[in-house]
## 1
Amino acid sequence: MRKNGFARHALIETLHTVQSSFGYLDDDAIRFVAASLRVPLSQAYGVVTFYHYFSLKPPGKHTVTICAGTACYIKGADKLVAAAEKRLGIAQGQTTKDGQISLMTARCVGACSRAPVILSDGAVAGEVTAEQMLEQLERWAVE
Amino acid sequence: MTIEELEQIAESVRAENAKYDFEVNVCMDLACSSQGSEKLREALVKAVEASGKTVLVRRTGCMGPCSAGPLVRVDPEETLYRHVNADHAEQIVSSLGGEPVPALQCDLSEHFDKQVRVVLENAGHIDPEKIDDYIARDGYKALLTALVEMTPGGVIHRITESRLRGRGGGGYPTGLKWSTVAKASGDQKYVVCNGDEGDPGAFMDRSVMEGDPHRVIEGMAIAAYAVGANKGFIYVRAEYPVAVARLTTALREARRRGLLGSNIGGTTFSFDVEIRLGAGAFVCGEETALIASIEGRRGTPKPRPPYPAVSGLWGKPTLINNVETYANIAPIVRNGGKWFADMGSERSKGTKVFALTGKIANTGLVEVPMGIKLREIIEEIGGGVPDGHKFKAVQTGGPSGGCIPAEMLDTGVSYDALMAMGSIMGSGGMIVMDDTSCMVNVARFFIEFCMTESCGKCIPCRAGTAQMHTLLTRICDGAGTLEDLELLEDLCSTVREASLCGLGQTAPNPVLSTLKYFRNEYIDHIVHKRCLAGVCKIEAPAETPVEVLA
């Protein structure tokens, strides 16, 4: 906040910083940011819920993000999502009960030439098969 | 920094590079780096040290043919190696000065021959984190020339003369946009770079921002001089952390060299740029929504007029252009408007970068002159559809675009020709589909995308896309009727006519274009209860004969 001179228009920047430090945005964090930047809490909450990138729930220990861009879709990303959902027993956007793994989808990470693409804890892997992804999930489940 | 000083830097970098016998360029773009090109680079550096040869190992931006990555290019021979990993490092280094390594050599002459590189001229040749590399390739020369030798009006005249059109998708004449902002009254103006490449399946802007960030900054600075702005914003997607990091470095280096900040080039012109992060909202690619997002609000569009050129960021006149548009500016100022206008087709000038992906042999980034036939891009540059499958359609323009069938492939690429085919140029995603893709399913995919990305402000888009999605899902499940098709077409025209912004107005395009060119697939799903591509799971085949409406 200091970096942006507590400017009100730096709300999204500030929320990004908070989310990258804590992994998600809880009520206290949103309240604190809104008060510090002197923006109405409703505006801060409105911004958080409008943009997909912000999360109100804490992420799991590991996160697998499956790219759902067009190129990935054409190359079978939907099958990857289905396989992961089946293995983890959760829907996309959720975290397993033991808090180990979160399953996310992304709109497009821009690595379309290597579709289908997944992000394992942020690391990009291209031309992924369901087997490779499930192997990774097995490793994470016990870590 | 004066032009003479700039020349001195360029000279010293060239002299420094000339000390090396060879240059080994390693592509560090996302596709290559996700396959370990950083490890490869380290191995190359080690191998060079061990060999005692004088070799410069450089990290570069995207070289183009991503499907052959990780890529390494050895200069001055321009030998391109494909699928290189760290184990090959010694082999490559020991081959320097002798015969190239045949097993790794990559012959993509057909891929490169038809390409013309303007925007991507530096990609794969410079280290994006070193401003001096950019300066050595005539970087910032256009900016200083414009500041010292040209009037703002002169710059705008040159851009108008080039007949450059906005590369973000709409194709609005750039010169006209600039002169509108220049004429707008007000002492505070802004220039904004739209780097919110929301179109899924496109990554040109990411590659430009990551591989040649100074080119974008230089373009923005020239624009600021031309329209009379002193402050700029680059709006980048949060999904592109590398682009953000590279731009941050580039801005710092440009300030250090006095190419941004106060009194640039010893003139009275001052300009600086800030980065603003997006947060995952496709609608923010729309001008007015993007402005709202920069101001720290929800990204919902506003009715236009007033256009941002008159009342934009904080109510001030604002120039908004796309990354690729700005990337074209410096070469136009350097080489003249006529040089640019000589390339391309009648009403679409210059080149266009496309991200070629999907079911095609050579995926990656290509830059082609406007007017080139789609067939040349797909069959020659792209190498055709692999694995013996048959080409079905190419999708351009992302969720706002359409699917173009095989029989239209001989059309030349231009804003107007694509529009006439029911698609749009868009930002430049080009996704090839083969006979394993179901066009009804693809239409549903795009409508689902637009439905989730609709900001919800206006009803035609918010409710219309949801209803279209329901109808398409029903057809995909084999439960659709022929009346549904009529309803779908009706809805398409309502959403197109009545939506507030570009997202809604163009959302029906994927449906309309598939209905136009692949109507038989819809009929197959509805009447024959089958999906020939085998994508849709139609469980109960039609047992009772379906009543076909007249």
## 2
Amino acid sequence: MTGLRWKRKVWLMALVALAALPLACGSNANNTKNATQAAPSATKAASAAATSASAATTVGASATSAATQAVKPAKVTKIVFVPDWFAEPENAGELMAKVLNLYPPDLDVEIRDGGPSVSVTQQLATGQIQMGTCGGIDSVMIAKQQGIDLVALFAPMQITPQVLIAHKEAGIKGFEDMKGKSIAVSDFANYFDWLAKKYGWSQSQRVKYTGTLQDFLTNKSLITQGYYTAEPFYIQKEGQQVDVFKIADAGYNPYAEVLCTSKGFLEKNPDAVREFVQAAQKGYLAMLDPKNQKLLFDEIQRRNKDEQVDAMNYAISKMPDLMFTNETLTNGYGTMTDARWQTMMQQLIDIGVLKGPLDYKALYTNEYLDKSLKGMPPAASPTLAR
Amino acid sequence: MTELTTAISEARPGAASPDAARTSLSTPRAEQRVAWRAISSQLGVVLPPLLVVVVVVAAWQAWVSLFHVPRYLVPAPSRVWERVIDDRAALWQAFRSTATSALLGYLAAIALGFLVAVAFASNRVVQRCFYPFAITLQTVPIIAIAPIIIVWAGPGKLAIVIITFIITVFPVIANATIGLMSTDHNLLNLFAINNASRLQLLWKLRLPNAMPYIVTGLKISAGLSVIGAIVGEFFAGRGGASSGLGSLITFSSARLQTDMLFAATLTASLLGIGFFLVINQLGNYAVRNWHESATKREN
């Protein structure tokens, strides 16, 4: 052979040996014969030894696991839960329950992250997930109109946290003053049409909510949407003064951050649903206890790096204003009433979002709540709709 | 005189015998044949795509019905058609709004893009300094710069036209630049020998020579301008009367109204196709006299 051809053969052999190595390692777990590759004998011996060694350890492991799992649950139900946004205290009750191990052993709970492009409604409808945060009961009714059967189980926020925020310089005293001003609202906000009808706004005032506060901070005449528990804090941190107007005070007040499941899943797994709902109730209530907050904040920051501790503290300080009403004090934390569902349905019909009346009673139930959990008495703030 | 006319008629090809006269262009049957050939060539262009559309729509309807596909995932063509009929006023208004934004952005891209291309073609240093920025205009993700544009221009038509411009301008710049730089060197020398001014050089030589390249750039940008207008509306759209197809798409998507979503998307596609066809015809017309791609030939 000439020098060049010999060099090429050496390279080829080296390449084959290199490729054979992962194959040899990969087959350790399963088969003992390595006849398929021209691997060096050393690799063959090593893999054979490894196979017997791993076999021994698996036997040992299964023995110990059998000993510890003496009381194995009869049936483990897998539940995948997705909230309506990235991880933040407002939707983190279920996450808190996971962190504190409040779910019983017969539930295998996986919590994924939501976000702007994640449609909880569609995922529930197609069975990709079993539980989700539906945003508000208006979303549940709109989904029903499109042929999606969801059931709302638990309303952690009795009062919607949605607010409109204006700069103090703009001198806006109420929703009436917002006529003619540009209002940045997300496409998912159903309240805009209702407020526009009530206060005589025009549709051309509606501009896109870009998700950042940049346009609001630089444009003093812009009004932006926000959450009562979040945006005012960020804006004030930037050194700007704002006026905050709660949508609930105008009369549009859907239950918010509502825990939903699909009708099909509920019918097949009522017990699993009950356990999940009650653990979620406990999770939200546990969030208010400072002892648990460090664990929660660490978990939230692990999932959502942008969430800061001071913002989370602010959110948790504001949440009780929205979580507790006279209703929850009497009938248990998270209950919903026919009257409020009916009001919301009528409001959606008035603005043309719903084509006609629905059987809203079939869209929710309080049956799975632990009614003994009352939470705290409602806040004394006079401006919040009770 | 009769000898002259006889001689002329005899000189015409195929006019020697009465039989030959039947195949000449003057008989009614021959004229019919020519007319039919023209019509069938037109049909040959239009019919195949129409047939494909019919087959696709039929298959789609069958799939949705047979497999009971839920309507919040994929609507049946019948539902989409119902929606188009019921909401044709809203769709037409949105169509006009998006078409206006797309056209304004497109014209701005052509005008400014061409000026930039002239600058690039005239001066190598300028080209080397600024060409990378032209490329950046194409590659920068709109989602990142849209908030900045909205802060500067305010939400609404102006921001949408700016976003359309940004998405549309690069093909115009790139194609016009290369077109202006591709003039035959010998012709340039000829013009130099004849003491042509720079303006004469540009107007009489470089520009006509660059037309095929420019026309290609325009064809690419035509479709992009519609995309640009719709993307602009995703970020900077206003509600109400001036809202376009992009706003319609995002609203109906948020409200799970998939039939309206499909109807709006279809309308947007038609707008894009329409733009492209118009520019295609105009482009071919512009170079019809001399360029290989558009002249009429016998073979």
## 3
Amino acid sequence: MNNVIAVAGVVIKELYRRKDFYVLFVMTALITLVLGSINFFNDDHIVRYLKDACLLLIWISSLIIGITTAARQIPAERESRTIFPLLAKPIGRAQLISGKFFGCWMASGLALIVFYFFFAIISASRDHSLPFLAYAQAMWLHWICLGIVIALSLLGSVVFTAPSSNSTISFIVVAGIMFCGRHLNGVAVNIGGVRGDIVYVIYYSIPHLEWYDIRNFVVHDWGTVPWTACLGATIYGAMYAGLLLGAAWLIFRKRSLTT
Amino acid sequence: MNTVVEIKDLRVEFPGRDWRERPKLAVDGLNLQVQSGEVFGFLGPNGAGKTTTMNVLLGFVNPTGGSASIFGVDVREPIARQRIGYLPELTYYYKFLNTEELLRFYARIFSIPRAEREKRIDAVLKLVELETARKRLIKTYSKGMQQRVGLAQALINDPDLLILDEPTSGLDPVGRMKVREIIQRLKERGKTIFFSSHELGEIETICDRVAILHEGKLRVVGRVDELVTQYQCNLENVFLKIVGFQPPS
């Protein structure tokens, strides 16, 4: 565990010493503040649009941070050759993968805390309410979702040599799941036959990231999702992240690394 | 003397890039032993299989056949690397860390207790003469300084075996001298050093024994003075004879 924490610490340091997070946060804040300064059509519920826009920006920013940070981990280590002095020490490849995962996940968690704190301030200043539990739950599920996304990108980082191709593929897969994942069972029913069965297999095998997006609950003040559902989604997320990390380790453990 | 490194019938084959290309044999039936306290030079022309052998010892490459162990532990086990220090030929370290942070990170991987960790960092930084630059980001260092950071990280666990892959490659004469001095000091402290280099003069002055590898096969192994006497020439000419180089007449 000591090795996992040590590797994770370096990943977190990398994130806060790079400019990515600061740029994304400033952009999110600026866009939200500009949107918040305008009152379209004298709509009394304009704050909902503002909250919706702010949460959308937070989701996009967090996915960018999570995917790009995870996607470059192993390829960048190999490209800069830092992997050699590291693996020449008593650290296993499973520990390296786990450390990279926890580092990226913790780093994106820290970024989420900053983003959601900003969201809470904006929301409280306009809405004059602070449903702390709903925000905390939304952030928690968002973080679990990022765990799956980061594990997926880490799997990509041991398969693809270029971080850019891994990031692009990860973004397409994540966006595809988030936009189309929930409709696949409907598509399977409509198609029928063997092709329908194939779509069903895809539907049941992909991690349903859309379950973690509870922005509507926050925007429309619908309260919290039942806590049992939240717990189920957490277990489901942990299981998928574990499977993806296991696959990453299986590929990486036998791979020859030549100096 | 205890055997520190033991290589038995080692064979390493790299697959071809596609099905038409035949696998490339990098190391073929290598048998080698390095004893405790000796400085062992690993020589060979480029592509002879030196770095591949080192990669097997460090667990970067899995052997196709045979076995290798360090301190009696199979090199595929991470614990085999607990007592070794490794300096790669080209040293690049995390650009966003300073030397102190880098050494602290590596010390944690060796599970060095916190109190001891700081003492060890101070000691290795003193040894490689980087005390004053310890808070500077590594990306601001010169090549010679980066090589010394490499040595510092290789020594952070006070290793019993040091594996150095061309430690003076690309350094200016002053840098080479400093690295050589450090190796000499480690030798005096009884450390086992296994290193590859193309600097045969350097090998001749530092090493107790050498092995010469050519086309993946071990051609000769023995004490430097014995080889020089046997071949009636200096180590450079011994090397050239063994690899079959014919000087132009």
## 4
Amino acid sequence: MGMYNWRVIIRNSLPLLTLTAFLEIIAGQILQGGEKLLVSIPLLLVCIPVINSVGGNLGSILGARLASALHIGSIEVNFRDTRLIENMLVALLMGLITYFILAIGIYLFAVFIGIEAGDVDVLEFIGIVVLTGLLLSCVIILVSVLTALVSFRRGVDPDDMVAPIVTTTGDIMGILFFFILLQIFGVGI
Amino acid sequence: MDTGEMVKQSLPLLILCGFGAILTGGTLSGMTRVLESIPGLIVVIPGVIAMRGNISTALGSRIGSAYHLGLIDADNLWSEDLKQNIFGSLILSVLVSIVIGVLAYFTSLLLNVYPNPLELILIVLLGGVSSAIILTALTIIIVYIVFKKGYDPDNITGPALATIGDIITMVCILGSAYLVEVIL
């Protein structure tokens, strides 16, 4: 007889998966709210998975590092810990570099494949994606650190909590920030 | 907590996964016609992708743990433990797909969008289950190769599966939307 049973796997996973499904539907409804704009400028549709994936990965990487450091005891559960602050700033810098490179990548990909860019020019586009990335990285990093610290304090393994929490918050906030910046830059108006 | 090491190891991976996500976005940008003709379809996309990521990475990491515990190895991969894991992941995909479809339908009604409930739930179910089957098969193949080479599956399966998984899931949703449109 093995160690795994499919009923136990379902019983353990279903509550969290249902909760994340519910939160992802909020992200989906925000997308639906901006659907007309997205469909009229397909270049913007390309950005959605990119913005969300980078945000989720950045948060998960930082969260996993913090979880290990907390387990080993090399950082403290404290916002005055300089190593913690340094890690947050480096993560922010990594986020900015990644969003900048990918903004150029998305634009080149769109030109190469022939995806319509509407009235969005390349500099405006890079500005929108990088600023969305900046706001999202700040939120993701804070959420990741808070989740790691709070779950560690409460005796829950941060490894189980950080990834699902940062990816769902990232999906909602990423789409929200993207639409706000499109409004500010006056895209599609 | 050496940050230089984080940049060296994680930044290339972050950028590489981002380029994978551009392919996912490219697929999404090719869906403008079905997005317009099927109300509510855009609502389910983040949910299905997140579900796929959560279920597949959990499967990958459970197989990784089973490997470390010595329950499975390359010569003894097709064990009872693996079968239970595969079956559990597939049933989870069916259940969560239905949850996503139903939630997308009712929340849309609240916002004065009126999807066809049967069409929407069928697309999510088909997209969710077909991507689950493909990704489960892929996970087992990746794990098998990783075992054979003697690497630690924990370092490989997560990021690789997440990036490939997103692209496959988006293609599966697109395919299901076309199929359901033709059938209904």
